[in-house]
Write a structure and sequence with these properties.
Helices cover about 30% and strands about 20% of the residues. It is α/β, with parallel strands linked by helices and about 500 residues long. Helix 11 packs across helix 13.
Length: about 500
């Protein structure tokens, strides 16, 4: 776990293995960002190095310089903040967050890193702290003994990050560092779950991971598990149908953080398909390569509940992890089957590769039975989301515009890109069925929206609800950027935590 703290000492005096400083682009060349506070000799040396290396100061540009005179840290990492004017002294929170993340991703074999970016105000300090801690993430993987002579430290994350700021002695800055530590640890847990190979992570082992983390947590999170027998008995036909083709039976895991004198209650429902082959409507082989990530919504929900508990947020937060493995076999669900959901609604199955909405439908029903103030479900639900919004932007749909905007605001504040999408009533007719109460899929066009309309059918009347489709931003198949690594991103933890914290006010 990477720990974040703050200091008001001068950057060049901080004892660390690495010092991170910002650069800006001016007229095609790079210059040190203002507010670095370095001695004249150190600043002059770095300016010479920037010129010699033909630096531009562009975003994500990272350069390393060793042995800077007058600087206690033996290595200085220079990270670009983008174009700026000669008098620019402040930068956007996401610019700082990404720059800090880019810098920390470049650091290897170092235990202590100091970060001195031009952060003005507590929110900027928080952005730097979060970006640095998220950028320090490393996935250990599933590996045998290290080869002889290989340095195991090269893959270990940074242990301590110190954010240099004039506000380092204030309680607000210290609180921001604490929150950044908790958030980064929660996102690391979500990333680890998503990155885990599917033969290692299946519904039961996912449930065991959650129980183990709850047992080790400093704050009490209650965990309960519905196994396949309890799911059948409880009428959870959606998730039972999806999971019936696998040797790894489904589970619904409920996590509850219930603090004394809670000021509100929020239910979070996560899609947890630990591997999605498509079922009998099997996917093309290339489309299965990232399907271990189809449980990213459940991972985000679990991580958020633990983070809220660790921070002591005075809001009751209940997470519902809808866990199943979607596999083809002689017992697998068939197109044209009809199943009965938790609330008694019958659903005609049209495409076994549209399984996520079935497990979520049951989860939303269960969440609604506790009458929370609001319900949010989060899922890698549709390829249509990526067609509409690309790989970095989630889609948000809701039964209440004000609540949708509230979720979107939480996403913006956390640096997780999201965009509001409609639930057009004219598309609802596509879900009519001749043999059941509901068909579980609409036409190809507007597939993200009809999926949202399907889920809306299971929301209790009068309860604010939002659906967040994270098919794109949950898993990064390209190169790392900013604080986002290749592979699992942990998307959604920041948004959900911000939303929950909002109910405390």
């Amino acid at each position: 776990m990477t720990t974040v703290n703050v200091t008001d000492r001068s950057a060049h005096d901080v004892k660390a293995d690495v010092l991170v400083l910002g650069t800006i682009g001016q007229d095609g060349e790079a210059a040190l960002a203002p507010g670095h506070g370095l001695p004249r000799g150190a600043a002059s040396h770095l300016a010479t190095q920037l010129s010699a290396l033909h630096a531009t100061g562009s975003a994500d540009e990272v350069l390393t310089v060793a042995g800077v005179p007058g600087v206690a840290a033996p290595v200085v990492v220079l990270v670009g903040l983008g174009k700026a004017g000669a008098t620019t002294t402040s930068f956007g929170h996401e610019v700082l967050r990404r720059a800090a993340g880019s810098a920390l991703r470049s650091v290897r074999k170092s235990s202590k890193v100091a970060v001195a970016l031009p952060a003005t105000g507590v929110e900027s300090v928080a952005a730097v702290a979060e970006g640095a801690a998220l950028g320090a993430y490393r996935y250990a993987g599933v590996r045998g003994p290290a080869p002889k002579g290989k340095d195991a430290k090269a893959s270990e994350p940074v242990a301590t990050i110190t954010v240099v700021t004039p506000e380092g002695r204030t309680k607000a800055a210290k609180d921001a560092a604490t929150r950044a530590t908790v958030l980064a640890d929660a996102k690391a847990y979500a990333r680890d779950l998503v990155n885990t190979p599917p033969n290692k992570l299946f519904p039961q082992s996912f449930a065991e991971s959650v129980k183990e983390r709850a047992g080790a947590a400093s704050a009490k999170v209650k965990v309960s598990v519905l196994d396949e027998k309890a799911l059948v008995k409880g009428g959870f036909g959606g998730i039972v149908g999806v999971g019936q083709g696998s040797v790894n039976p489904p589970r619904i895991v409920t996590l509850t953080w219930n603090p004394p004198k809670a000021r509100g209650s929020v239910a979070l429902v996560g899609k947890g398909i630990t591997f999605d082959s498509g079922g009998l409507c099997i996917k093309p082989p290339a489309s299965m390569l990232s399907m271990k990530s189809d449980m990213a919504g459940a991972a985000a929900v679990a991580a958020t509940v633990f983070a809220a508990a660790e921070l002591g947020v005075p809001v009751t937060v209940t997470g519902y992890l809808c866990l199943a493995e979607n596999m083809p076999s002689g017992s697998a669900q068939r197109p044209s089957d009809v199943v009965t959901m938790r609330n008694g609604t019958t659903v005609e199955i049209l495409d076994t590769d549209a399984e996520g909405r079935m497990v979520l439908g049951d989860g939303i029903c269960l969440a609604g039975e506790s009458t929370p103030d609001a319900i949010v479900d989060i899922a890698t639900l549709t390829g249509a989301q990526m067609v509409a919004l690309g790989a970095r932007v989630a889609g948000i749909m809701a039964n209440d515009d004000a609540f949708r905007d509230r979720v979107r605001a939480a996403a913006d504040a956390s640096g997780e890109a999201a965009w509001p999408m409609p639930l057009p009533t004219d598309l609802r007719a596509q879900l009519d069925s001749a043999v059941a109460d509901l068909a579980h899929k609409g036409e190809r066009w507007g597939g993200m929206l009809t999926a949202g309309l399907f889920l809306q059918e299971f929301v209790p009347e009068g309860t604010p609800w939002a659906h967040v489709d994270i098919a794109g931003p949950s898993f990064n198949e390209g190169a790392a950027w900013g604080y986002t690594p290749k592979g699992a991103t942990g998307y959604g933890v920041g948004t959900l935590l911000r939303l929950v914290e909002g109910y405390a006010g």
